[in-house]
Each structure stands twice: as C-alpha cells, then as structure tokens.
Design brief:
By secondary structure, the chain is α+β, with helices and mostly antiparallel strands. α4 (156-178) packs antiparallel against α7 (287-298), α6 crosses α7 and α10 (409-418) packs antiparallel against α11 (426-436). It has 12 helices and 20 strands. β18 (389-394) and β19 form a beta hairpin. The strands form 5 sheets. The chain has an 8-stranded mixed sheet, with helices on both faces. Strands 1-2-3-5-4 form a 5-stranded mixed beta barrel. It has helices at 60-67, 142-147, 149-152, 156-178, 217-225, 266-285, 287-298, 320-329, 344-358, 409-418, 426-436, 449-457, and strands at residues 17-31, 34-41, 44-51, 74-82, 93-107, 133-134, 137-138, 182-183, 189-190, 202-205, 208-212, 230-238, 251-260, 317-319, 362-366, 379-380, 383-387, 389-394, 397-404, 442-448. Bound molecules: adenosine-5'-triphosphate and aspartyl-adenosine-5'-monophosphate. Adenosine-5'-triphosphate (ATP) binds at residues 241, 243, 245, 248, 343-344, 398, 401.
Length: 477
Amino acid sequence: RYIEDLGDLNAVEEETKVTIEARVYSTRKQSAKLSFLVIGEGDHTIQAVVAEGGEQKISRQMIKWCGGINTESIVRITGLVKKPFEEIKSTSITKYELHVQEIFMVSEAPEQLPIQRKDCNQPPPTEEEGNAEKEGLINVSLKGRLDNRVISLRASAQQAIIELQSEVSFLFAEYMRKHKFKWIQPSYLAGAATEGGAGVFEIKYFETKAYLTQSPQFFKQMAIAGDMKRVCINGPVFRAENSNTKRHLTEFTGLDFEMTIQNHYHEVLSFGEQLMIFIIRALQTRPECQHLVNIIKKAGYPEAGDFQLPPGDEAVRITFAEAKKMLKESGYDIGEDEMEDIDTAQEKALGALILSKHHTDFYTIDKYPRTLRPFYTHPDPTNPLLTNSYDFFMRGQEIMSGAQRIHNYDLLCQNMREKGLDPLAEGFRHYTDAFRYGCAPHGGGGLGLNRIVQFFLGLRDVREATLFPRDPGRLAP
Ligand code: ATP
Ligand code: AMO
C-alpha cells in the first residue's frame, strides 16, 4: 500500500506492508547489524529500522549504506509497520516504526548543505541576536533563510506560514464568490502611475515606456464603469519604494475589491470589515488553519494564535480625528495641524490603546484628510477637507486602504488638476473617459496579503510571510 502522506500511517493496522517516499532527516548506525533512519515530511516523522536478516535478507553492507545516507536525500522504502520498542510521546512522530524490507535512493542530496532545515524552524534571530547558537541549534538569519529558500521552506513552521497565506487567498476568494464578486484579471502593465509618481517601476515597452502596475486601481474602477458591479483581484502589485522597513516590499500581493454603492459609502466599509472578520475568524476556527497556526506557535512565534477579534464580531471604527484625539489624550506629541498624518510609531501606539479600550487587534480608521489621499478619492460631502476613505489595521499596522471613488467626471478632472495631474494625458485619458461615459457610484479597497499574514501571526518581518520576497536589495532567488 502506497502512503502518500506520512500522517496517514497512524491510521493503518500493525503489520501492514506499506511503501513511502520521503526525506531522510537523520541517520544513525547503531551496530553492524542495525541502522536507524528518521524519515520525515513536514511535521510528521517516522523511524525506519534497518536490521540484518529477515525475509528480505538485509545485508550488513546495506545496513552500513543506510547509516550513511546524506540527510535531505529522498528515499523510497517498503516495509512493515510495527509498534516501536518504546512508547512514543511526541504527537508529530507517527505511532509506528517502519521495518525496512527494501530501500531505494530516489534523489540524493549533497553531504553538505548551506543551511540546515532544523536551524530554520524557530523565528529568525533579531539583528541584535545574530546567528546565535543555542542548545546546539544554529538559528539561521532571515537573510540566510531567504538566500536558501528551498531549504528553509522545508522547515515545518516556515512552510506553515506560506500555507497560511494560501488559506487567506482561498478564504478571500470564497467570501467574494459568496457575495457575487467576479474575479477579474487586470493588466499588470500600465501607461500611468495611480498612487503618485515616485514609486513606479518604469520599463521599456518597444519604442515607448510603460510601468508595472502600482495598483490595479484604474482597471477595477473601469470594470465597474463597464457595469461589472462587483469585482475582485488577487495579483502582484509593484512599488519602487527604496524602503528598508519590516513591512514594505517592492512587489507584494494585493487582494483588491471594488463594488457599486447603493446609498452610502459605509456599505463598502462594512463589507470590507466583514470580509476581514470572516477571514480571521476562519483562520482561528477551521481545523486546517488551526493546524497551521499550532505548528507556527509550537515553533516559538510569540504572538501566533493570540489575535483578538472585536467582541461579538462588531467591527470597531473610529475617525481619523478621533484617532489623533486618543493619541493626544495619552500624551503623544500630535501637532495642531489636523491634516497631518500620524507616523508608524503613533499608529502602533494607537493599536495598543484600541486593544485595551475595545479588546480588538483589528479596527478601521475612517475619514482621512484630503491631502493624504490619492486623487481618485471621493471628498466628504459634509466637510471638503476630508474624504470618504478608510484604512484597516491589524495590531496597529495598516493592512488596507480604501475609499469611495469620484465618479463625477468634472469633479475628478478638477481634483486631478489640483494635485498637478493632467486628466487628458495619454496615460489617464481612458480612465477619466470611463466617468465621462457615465459610471455608478462605487468604492473599494486594497489589502496587502503578505501583511495580513505577517500581522495575524505577529511576524517581525513581512519577508517571512513572502515566498520569494523582493526588496531594494533582493532580486533572487
Ligand atoms: P501605503 O502604501 O498605503 O502608503 P504604508 O503602510 O506604506 O501603505 P504610508 O502612508 O506610506 O503607509 O506610510 C506609513 C508610515 O510608514 C509612514 O509614516 C512612515 O513612517 C513609514 N514608511 C512608509 N514608507 C516608508 C519608507 N519608504 N521608509 C521608511 N518608512 C516608511
Ligand atoms: P495602498 O497603497 O494603501 O492602496 O496599498 C494597499 C495595501 O497594500 C499593502 N501595501 C504593501 N505591502 C507590502 N509592501 C508594500 N510596499 C506595500 N504598500 C502597500 C498595505 C496597504 O494597505 N489603490 C489603493 C487601494 C484602494 O483604494 O483600493 C492602494 O493601492 O497592506
């Protein structure tokens, strides 16, 4: 019987003959007559016993060879499952031993690998800690892990982080489909910047130039102008930000949505909040997600598994002005200028204040000043200095920006001109025409997938939540 998933071994009867293919995690030659191999797959391992004699007439030469197999090689073993000599206490070790009858090398790893899987399971060291060696384990730096991504990815906690990202993508798609959104494919080549000019990658496009999309903003809005009513996207977003922070990448995955508004832009805001509560709640309750969170938690990530959702799943929403007031009342140095943004440290402090007051790590800030938002953001009809726009936060850090959009052509052109942009320029003309031809009131938002995983788990660096991160210093692997 071929066992595809090592975890399934627990379900077979003793003395069953099985075949497995998995990696060698460690080897031990006990004597001329006996060797042990620990064979593993993710967080499951089984001990394989290679003993002299038996039906298959295992030779001493074979035992010696097994005891010297390079770790990380893939072997194919056929053998009998038996109760081990000693009771196994760890839940990650299968309850049986495998008594080897046949063993084949499927893919041999070299004797020396640049890093070891076992040295990548725990959170990477902080800069102060360096590549610290603790209790015989070398805790490989994040750089070392990313330089050798194929090996670090084999460490069960690192793999679980990437698998959790996959769950978030599926949950986003599930919720969107349930609410009748269409999953559209925008172009990732654009003729103009959407989020301001500084952060775009310019590329040569035959005789002309193009940009890698900074946001699918124009495409999702134009789909609404084409009467698609509710659209969503899961795709790459490129930002030429020369930033070396722990939450900025030059390429990240955007989960975008855009929808028509019936009466009030808070319809969009409520939709986004319920989407996030659905995703986080599912991460906390669905067995397949909990399994991943437990692996990560067990590996020593301090904040994994303790994310607080608002009591009763009632989203907590405050205005930008209220956020600044809360900070000021707590003694933070907030200037008199009501239009001035709050910085990252203040945002984090606000996260802590909201956690103690409202008992939630997820919340929304509404009504940002006009000066802080892109040209397509709808003004607040009751206060021309403000906009119908919002950001979502997890543990005091931004995971989403969104807004009602300007759908009136004249107002859009005026707003663009005020921000120094020409609405009739070649790169903007098709976008602005969409509103000249008539477009329903609408709004939406863009979530950073990598950041959702980072802040849900409380990871120090967004690169840990990214399979192949790109930043100003990294283009490979
Ligand atoms: P967005 O893409 O919506 O702007 P963001 O999280 O980058 O998302 P910003 O408003 O750009 O939000 O930045 C928020 C804070 O993050 C800034 O006040 C600043 O402290 C910090 N920050 C942003 N970009 C950089 C950068 N390139 N280098 C260092 N810090 C930055
Ligand atoms: P914004 O620029 O705020 O909004 O981006 C939306 C979300 O994307 C994530 N994000 C990032 N993640 C990793 N590295 C980065 N450099 C980075 N920059 C942003 C954040 C952020 O909240 N067009 C609007 C969205 C909209 O209004 O629909 C936009 O792009 O989580």
